[in-house]
Specification:
Elements: E1 22-27, E2 36-44, E3 50-53, E4 65-70, E5 80-92, E6 96-101, E7 108-109, H1 110-115, E8 122-128, E9 137-144, E10 150-155, E11 163-168, H2 172-182, H3 188-196, H4 199-209, E12 214-227, E13 230-239, H5 244-260, E14 280-281
Antiparallel strand pairs: 1-2, 1-4, 2-3, 3-6, 4-5, 5-6, 5-7, 8-9, 8-11, 9-10, 9-14, 10-13, 11-12, 12-13
Length: 286
């Protein structure tokens, strides 16, 4: 059981979140069978938690990481997205079943999440087909200027296509941090799981999969530089779907940059993965 709604707390809702607005809640935890569902923000609890209506049989464990996306713009015209965690379940005014979600400290609209970038270099690769029946081509790449909505890629092969798939090699510390967030709380259940498999390793693999084969539209492709090994192309990409994982990676890299000066890593002309001859046909794999 939980409280009746307390209207006095509504003044403290972050800008962009409104009572009655519909959201998509996605759970980053394999124990939650539903994976995601749509719910409406019904109220704010006396303790300041967001109350989303939910089916009675949807019971994600307390502490489950959740990503919340607005489905339609609010009255102020902006869409929004934020990461949080489940704090429990209850019944609003004793009747309506709701999920209790920790509100964000601050909220950024979806346009800012797509535009917010950090200048670091990540290794990865791109894949494309020059025509529907042509072999799948692959080239090593350096990814920089990353955001939740796109990236800039440097590669020694020019992708002759309208779309391509990009895979990022996310840093291990980031993979492990995100994996720990999705693990169950310590206790008997997690100890039993560890007897059958390594849940942390499985969680790391699921995080890596979020950065594989991201479908992107090629916005522009220009010559960046030339050297004795050939040409380096700068390819600007717009992701076909907003990538929450990339936005989280940007935030992580931003924190690392402030601590270590990660922005001073090798640029596209010096980074190892971009080498002539790395393009290869993947017809057999396709």
């Amino acid at each position: 059981m939980i409280m009746a709604g307390n209207r006095g707390f509504r003044a403290h809702l972050p800008d962009g979140i409104e009572i009655g607005q519909r959201f998509l809640l996605r759970f980053d935890d394999p124990r939650v069978e539903a994976g995601a569902y749509q719910g409406r923000l019904q109220d704010m609890s006396k303790s300041g938690l967001l109350c989303f209506d939910a089916p009675d049989d949807l019971r994600p464990p307390k502490g489950t990481p959740v990503t919340v996306h607005s489905i339609r713009p609010g009255s102020q015209g902006g869409s929004c997205s934020f990461s949080s965690e489940i704090r429990g379940r209850g019944r609003l005014r004793g009747r309506l079943p709701v999920l209790l979600v920790e509100p964000p400290d601050h909220l950024e609209d979806q346009a800012r999440r797509s535009a917010h970038r950090v200048s670091v270099c990540l290794r990865g690769n791109v894949r494309w087909r020059e025509a529907p029946r042509c072999p799948l081509q692959q080239a090593s790449a350096v990814i920089t200027n990353l955001s939740g909505g796109g990236a800039q890629v440097f590669t020694r092969e020019k992708p002759e296509a309208e779309y391509l798939e990009i895979t990022l090699d996310a840093p291990t510390p980031f993979i492990e941090e995100m994996a720990r967030r999705s693990l169950p709380r310590t206790g008997l259940q997690s100890r039993r799981m560890s007897l059958l498999h390594n849940p942390f390793s499985d969680s790391c693999e699921r995080v890596r999969e979020r950065f594989q084969g991201i479908r992107s539209q090629i916005v522009s492709c220009v010559v960046h530089s030339r050297d004795e090994r050939g040409t380096v192309y700068a390819v600007s990409l717009a992701f076909c779907e907003a990538q929450e994982g990339c936005f989280q990676l940007v935030r992580f890299l931003e924190r690392q940059s402030a601590r270590k000066g990660i922005g001073e890593e090798a640029g596209p002309d010096r980074a190892g993965p971009v080498r002539a001859g790395r393009r290869r046909s993947m017809a057999t794999a396709a």
